[in-house]
Design a protein that fits this description.
five-stranded mixed β-sheet; Tumour Suppressor Smad4; seven-stranded mixed β-sheet; mainly beta; FHA_dom; 12 strands; 3 helices
């Protein structure tokens, strides 16, 4: 056997891509402590904290309007599956955190959708999860947006949009749902 045949099987790593935007990022340089160049490994049992306190937070935002600890991301494996995910928790007592349209108060937490926009104050962060197999660690890959994320990206809609652009729920009696009909049956 060759060394190639005996080598361990490579496992893919879950990567959390985070794209940051703030309207004052050019003048205030609040992202100057973030590493936008390389992927960074984080142990699975570590909590990735974001905020202004460098002694506690792994990801520092240099802005006095950011809480000492703004929010955290916890990596976990979903029950009875091999899928992994992230839980986001708002740790700020003063600032609400919004994940897509869900508002989180202090100590509220939810599962991070596979693609979402996290907002607090003037900050916008696009989070995208690239799935992997490793349960020992995950990676973060930080990016800097030049334009506002909310105007630049379109997130997938939670409701299907019909081809005519008119929502069928406007015309259906309550409790009724649309049924699919073969076009030849009309």
């Amino acid at each position: 056997m060759t060394s190639f045949e005996e080598a361990k099987t490579e496992e893919t790593v879950t990567c959390l891509h985070l794209t940051f935007y703030h309207p004052g990022q050019e003048e205030k340089m609040m992202f100057r402590c973030l590493n936008f160049c390389n992927r960074e490994q984080v142990r699975a049992d570590d909590t990735a904290k974001f905020g202004r306190d460098s002694s506690v937070c792994r990801y520092n935002l240099m802005d006095t309007r950011v809480s000492r600890i703004q929010f955290s991301l916890q990596f976990y494996r979903k029950l009875h599956t091999s899928e992994c995910g992230f839980e986001i928790k708002n740790l700020s007592k003063k600032t609400k955190l919004t994940v897509n349209q869900t508002e989180l108060g202090h100590l509220n937490k939810i599962d991070l959708p596979w693609k979402c926009i996290i907002c607090f104050g003037d900050y916008q962060i696009l989070a995208e999860i690239q799935e992997g197999e490793s349960v020992d660690y995950f990676e973060t890959h930080l990016h800097l947006a030049k334009a506002p994320i909310l105007q630049e990206r379109c997130l997938p809609s939670l409701q299907p949009i019909p081809e005519n652009g008119i929502s069928p729920s406007l015309f259906l009696p309550q409790g009724k749902s649309p049924t699919e009909i073969d076009e030849n049956e009309l």
